Amino acid sequence: MSEAVTRTATTNPGLLASLDPLLREWLPRQRWFAGKGRPVTGFSLVAATELLPPTAKQGLYHLLVRAHQPLTLGSSPHPGDCYQLLIGAREALPPRLAPALIGHADQGPLAGQTLYDALYDTRPAELLLEALRTRARIGGLHFDRDPHQEIRDGLVPRMMTVEQSNSSIVYGDTFILKLLRRIVPGINPDLELPLALAREGCPRVPAPTGWLRAELAGDSYVLGVLQPFVQGVSDGWELALRELAKGEDFTAEARSLGRATAEVHTALARALPTVTLGHTQIRLLADGMLERLEAATQAVPALRPYAPGLHSAFTALADLAAEGRTWTAQRVHGDLHLGQCLRSPAGQWWLIDFEGEPSKPLAERRLPQPAARDIAGMLRSFDYAAHSTDAPVPGWAEACRAAYCSGYAEVSGVDPRMDPVLLRAYETDKAIYEVVYEARHRPDWLPVPMAAIENYVTSDLI
Ligand SMILES: Nc1ncnc2c1ncn2[C@@H]1O[C@H](COP(=O)(O)OP(=O)(O)O)[C@@H](O)[C@H]1O
Ligand SMILES: O=P(O)(O)O[C@H]1O[C@H](CO)[C@@H](O[C@H]2O[C@H](CO)[C@@H](O)[C@H](O)[C@H]2O)[C@H](O)[C@H]1O
């Protein structure tokens, strides 16, 4: 295997001739495809790296492929998002790889071969781990690791089957490798923040063991992060729904989650620069929220009747800044919700997935922001859980929200409820984001954030 990973890479633009017709069908169906609802008008190959010696029987290609999509119907094609793909080619697929099928190529260099998503396949997955272990460099792909953490040989890979925005492979219940699907140049917070937290010795986040980057035309792209796999965990979302179904209280867990969030925020504020936000910056923040509201009402017409009411949450924030109020901003998680929190059987909470909101530009995701942004995300999540159950428990979300804020205050010394205008602005912004997210990805869930939207415009309560 090490022979394979040290081979010189080749770039083969002809591959697209084989892939194009198949990707047009397959790519838009993937959960992680970011351009849903807009037709794909073509592809261009950003990079292609052969990871196995091509034989008549099997091929393995690491590809970065740009999908061209017009911004709106009839407009000119825009450069499009770039996706990371690991494409396998075989004469025929064994039944265990049926879920990975992309299609049968009938043109180009791979004509006659069956193409599939090779992350599901054992040998390609092993090869990625081996490359990280040996710090391999294959063409523009740089595999690296923390020299202080050992990566054992012989760990058996399995593809994760949970709903997620990227794709992850678990190795022998010891490591988890997340391969980012939509990739952008620059420092990715999904690697940057866990590395910074590891340096601070923060025990609430798994410390990165390895990482995969691409160096292309002077730009660096983070493609994947390997972390220790926390065994036997349940995520906060599963736990919350389980307790709700039993009509059980979740406030002890919510409080402990508030404490864990504050631990992470405190460590991030120590590890990376903080700034003070004054009138100008808060005005920009509020303007951004207003713009997102405007864009969301275009995308989801059901939001339109609520727009004036939602507007006031953002103007109230700008008004406060105009009166001279300032806020501290720091690096934050950026997309915190119950599904990003894992609880180990020993009762410890771990926070994962520091990518931020994937739809936002990287530079924006890396800006220091008030910690209230993450807190608002979690508060929304308790509300989501309460609205997603068949057996609603009156007051459940409110009690969890209060316990979470109390736990947060116990560790940080700051109770988020003391800043209701900021919290409300962030919660409203998050609920609007969720409306767009659900409309695009899970239309059946749209009523959940819509209920919150309705509530925000009819109540003053946080
Ligand atoms: N270190 C870990 N230990 C155990 N499970 C993990 C770990 N990291 C992620 N997971 C599992 O993988 C899922 C997806 O991870 P996440 O980082 O949220 O990916 P995505 O960005 O694709 O949504 C999580 O919901 C969790 O179930
Ligand atoms: O894929 P990610 O976890 O990075 O985040 C995206 O998907 C989430 C759904 O899987 C979405 O979260 C929303 O639904 C959750 C329940 O499934 C709920 O706990 C969250 O509060 C709610 O925001 C998230 O917004 C989106 O970015």
Automatic annotation (TrEMBL):
UniProt GO molecular function: ATP binding; kinase activity
Family per record: Belongs to the aminoglycoside phosphotransferase family.
The species this protein was found in: Streptomyces resistomycificus
Catalytic activity as recorded in UniProt: D-maltose + ATP = alpha-maltose 1-phosphate + ADP + H(+)
SUBUNIT field: Monomer.
InterPro entries, sorted: Kinase-like_dom_sf, Mak_N_cap
Protein name, UniProt field: Maltokinase
Pfam family, one: Mak_N_cap
Protein origin, superkingdom: Bacteria
